[in-house]
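Subject: Sanity check before I submit

Could someone independently write out the structure tokens for this chain? I want to compare against mine line by line before I put it in a report. The sequence has 226 residues.
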Amino acid sequence: MDAQRNLRHVLSAARDVFGEQGYGAPMEEVARRARVGVGTVYRRFPNKEALVRYIAEEQTRWLTERAAEALAVASAGEPWRGLEGFVRGSAASGSGRLLPPELWWLPPVEERGAERVPRQRGSWERPGGGAEGVVESGAGAAGAPGADGAAGPAGGERRGAAELLGTVGQLVERARSAGELRADVTVADVMLVIAAAPPRLGDQERQEAAAERLLEVLLRGLRPGA
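---
Independent answer below. Compare away.
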């Protein structure tokens, strides 16, 4: 029971710490926030990469589920409402800041008319709109903690990221086809919007107001005529 409680505390603290400070934050800070010894964290996860991979895969799955729900709304004839709902919910959750690190290795972009076309090395989006996949990464994968609480090997992190990008790509394409999204907006742009964060202001009310204002500005920038 104590082991499971400690694991929940470690995971909750890791989401908060990595969301605030990025994946460069030390394990000691995760342990401090979880109110456990750093040795407890390492008993659950053999190294920092294992914890990072677990959190990133967890948040990728969550966002993919939200994107699928938003796509159902878009498919029912409300493409902008579906996309906007996905962006708002994702930004509010902070999950966009916890996605796999390699997903943010944005490839160089060439401007070809109104289209933004990634070069050969990995990609975010085909010129026609659909997601192609994620940038290759040499980093190894780590999986969810097993029954004993230790992290075990698991593949599929790239597959999970590709599924997320593919679903968001369909959302983008539906909104764009309906004329409710700027023609030059890509999947990468939407993912950057959900990962955007206002400065930390120390006051919850001001923090929420700043976050809402930032999101409003970014969403307006996605609309035609912006």
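---
OP: Matches mine. For the report I'm noting this point. The longest helix spans residues 48-75.
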